[in-house]
Specification:
By secondary structure, the protein is an alpha+beta fold. The protein folds into 2 domains: 75 residues, Phosphorylase Kinase, domain 1, CATH 3.30.200.210; 64 residues, no CATH class. It is 38% helix and 24% strand. It has 6 helices and 8 strands, in the order ααβββααββαββαβ. The strands form 3 sheets. A 3-stranded antiparallel β-sheet has the order 1-2-3. Helix 1 runs antiparallel to helix 2. Bound molecules: iron/sulfur cluster. The site of iron/sulfur cluster has 12 residues, from helix 3.
Length: 193
């Protein structure tokens, strides 16, 4: 069996840990088996390098796609050969894979009315209409065209935006342009918090 540099380092690391701690009562055989299994799994994938889409740090990624299937992504991790990030990713970048596959993702709209104890399922049309109505009402109620000195400010201080975790740079740009068009002044993005 041939291993590339990354696979070799992983297995060598696990093997060294087993040798170092095995005699102390730690069960590290599982870690070694896991490293071998992971390296083996990568034999059946094509690895492509990419750049994290979330912020201007631009960390490097390696995406592994199924060679025998439909090119499905089976793993995404940091690229140790990347000159900026050297294999590391922040939690947001490290969760890239879960954008495509996540058993805990909720696909239906859930709504909990004020003071209610239970969540109700709603349609997307219902949710989008309600969000639009609320945003419009609050924006109209809190819009300030001129400040106390009569200067034109055209701002809305009744709404704030924080997010979102799953937006890439381009989506963030469009989103903040929309918010500024509405006059929002409190605009923040999760990558900087
Ligand atoms: S979001 Fe995180 S992983 Fe992605 S480029 Fe920024 S710091 Fe790197």
């Amino acid at each position: 069996m041939e291993w590339n540099r990354r696979e070799f380092l992983k297995i060598a690391g696990a093997t060294t840990a087993v040798a170092a701690f095995g005699g102390l009562g730690f069960d590290l055989g599982q870690a070694q088996a896991q490293a071998v299994a992971q390296a083996d799994k990568l034999k059946f994938t094509k690895q492509s390098t990419s750049v994290c889409c979330y912020c201007s740090v631009g960390c490097g990624l390696i995406a592994s796609t199924d060679k025998n299937g439909e090119g499905k992504v089976v793993n995404i991790e940091g690229d140790p050969d990347h000159p900026i990030s050297e294999g590391s990713l922040c939690p947001k970048g490290a969760s890239h894979y879960q954008l495509g596959k996540n058993d805990r993702r909720i696909y239906k709209v859930l709504y909990r009315a004020p003071y209610a104890e239970n969540w109700e399922e709603k349609s997307w049309d219902w949710a989008l209409d309600r969000i639009a109505r609320k945003v419009k009402d609050v924006r109209d109620a809190s819009f300030t065209a001129k400040d106390a000195k009569g200067r034109t400010v055209n701002r809305c201080e009744g709404l704030a935006s924080v997010g979102s975790a799953a937006m890439d740079n381009e989506e963030c740009w469009i989103y903040q342009a929309m918010l500024r068009a509405m006059g929002l002044t409190y605009i923040e993005h999760q990558a900087r918090i």
